[in-house]
Amino acid sequence: MGENDTGNNKAASPSLSIFMRVKYMTIRGAILCLRKLLGLDGLYRFGQIFGYCEYLLQYNRHRRIYRRLDQIYDPPLSKAEKRNIVREFCVRVRCDKMIYTIIDRIGRQEILNRLEIVGKEHLDRAVARGKGTFFMFSHQGSHHLGGILLTLAGYRLIALRDPNESPLRIYIQQQFENTFPEFRDLRITPTNSFVRPFFDAFRSNEIVAAAMDIRRDRGNVRTVPVKLFGNEEQFLSGMTHIALRCQSVIVVGFVLSFPGYRYQVAFYPWLTDPEQAVDDDDTVRDIMQKYANMIEEHIRKYPSHISKTR
């Protein structure tokens, strides 16, 4: 972790320019009109068409995903299989971006009716233990929807974000705070923040959520090398050290998008026995490699949820 103290419990949200606000207001207005005319299921079908058009036009994205799929699968997939995955990828991303842009204007119950939490017992048992939970999710899939869905489901989170967060996510976060009262207690904290608030969070039995599978340098953060699809990658590891010191539970989960704006958050059994695990380099490397192995298995099962292609 870095050395910048956020000060307050909640890091101040970066300000957005008037141009960006007008841009997002216009986009939101158009999508909300479509939703009013077509309903949420009709909006999804519209997103499918939009995503398919992007699939036909975005040749550079095709090549990047093809290269990544060739790293993942041995023997390689056929060209037809790779085309199907890219098409599903484009449709998923477009539909998820559309609902993310207006999700604060959809009723809480309508969202929860489309959410399934699998392995909920692993998270609930961790919370009941009373010593904090480190929820390790992943950039694979629409991870930015995970925190929103879990907060609406009643879980209080502290979410780590890239210090260079996209303007859209900042804007939507601000809209959610205005719409849903519980989001005013959600802390969105840059990854390079001072570590003390995270120790306090675990000791207060809160859930710290972060995607640790970065693929680029983020500055003054602690990382550890792992093997992912045969290549060495640097994954964030500072929060794992903190969780081990606090004897907090470490649980891995993934966010899955299904047709019709239906979502699943899947949790897996604890990565360690928090009463026995110690904070040393070997333990952290072992935990992060297990996490990388789970990502490999997840992406091979759901290849359209691949992300961070290059």
Provide structural commentary.
Helices cover 49% and strands 16% of the residues. With 310 residues, the chain is α/β, with parallel strands linked by helices. The protein has one domain. Helix 1 runs antiparallel to helix 3 (79-102). The model is unreliable at 1-12 (pLDDT under 50).
Mean pLDDT: 86
* General shape: globular
Low-confidence stretches: 1-12
Question: How many β-strands, per DSSP?
Answer: 9
Count of helical regions? 10
The number of distinct structural domains comes to 1
Q: Helix/strand-derived class?
A: alpha/beta
Physical arrangement of strands within the biggest beta sheet:
1-9-8-2-5-3-4
Instruction: Classify the helix fraction into a percent range.
Output: 40-55%
Main sheet record: 7 strands, mixed
Q: Gap between N and C termini, in Å?
A: 25 Å
Rg, nearest Å: 19 Å
The succession of helices and strands, N to C, reads HHHHEHEHEHEHEEEHEEH
β-strand amount: 15-25%
Topology:
Layout: H1 18-57, H2 59-72, H3 79-102, H4 108-112, E1 115-118, H5 120-129, E2 133-137, H6 144-152, E3 157-161, H7 167-179, E4 187-190, H8 196-203, E5 207-211, E6 223-228, E7 231-236, H9 238-245, E8 249-258, E9 262-267, H10 281-301
Parallel strand pairs: 1-9, 2-5, 2-8, 3-4, 3-5
Antiparallel strand pairs: 6-7, 8-9
Helix pairs in contact: 1-3
TL;DR?
With 310 residues, this protein is of the alpha/beta class.
Key words describing this protein structure:
disordered N terminus, globular, 49% helix, 10 helices, 9 strands, seven-stranded mixed beta sheet, 310 residues, two-stranded antiparallel ribbon, alpha/beta
